[in-house]
Amino acid sequence: MTDQADTRSRWRQYAAEVLVIVIGILLALAADAGRQSLADRASERAVLAALRVEFAADVTELESDQASRAQKLASIDLLNRIRNGEVKRPQTDVMANAFLDLLDWRFYTASHPVLDDLVTTGRLDLIESDELRHALMVFGQERSRISVTEQFDRDFVASQLIPYISSRVDLEALSSNSPDRIATAILPVNEMLVSNNFRSMLYLSKDRTTVSRDYGARLMKTVTDVQRILGKRD
Questions:
Q1: Whole-model pTM?
Q2: In a domain, 145, yes or no
């Protein structure tokens, strides 16, 4: 009986020692996890602050892009109305600006180093909010889409509009500050306005600019969605 009692006593002592060790390990792991959690939350706060700056820059650029596209569409509408005899020809400088607007295109170039680093390194889960992570992924999709539509717009302007107009109009004179040079440069415009080729150019330019404008609006919505969620994380 004494041997059995001693054996049970040793097992109890051994179990107690093991339990102490296990508890110590668990406490150490919990402490490490707590420290890591604190570090992650500090990193998240820094990331969210940086994202607020990045998306504020998005709004500024997109508003400028959309205003430029609206101006271009207004100029296309003016030239079409002049072609159709719906309005009289405006002053020379207005006509010159309308033609120069045709040669404009916009590229979304806002930089997102923080967001791109999170995505490429697989650390997007550093952000706790499922809603914010989803909004950021939707933004990424729309950002990719608009780059394609803008490239179509740029290619059309560069490969068709600029060669067509520059072969008929002195663009340097048209964009000068000299009223006399502008007046001389605008003289060939009458012939161009009645051309069926130019009508097609206006149609295609309106179509491509409208597509870029619509995708710009979609991108702006994703940006404002992200900003709204970031505001809730203040």
A1: 0.79
A2: yes
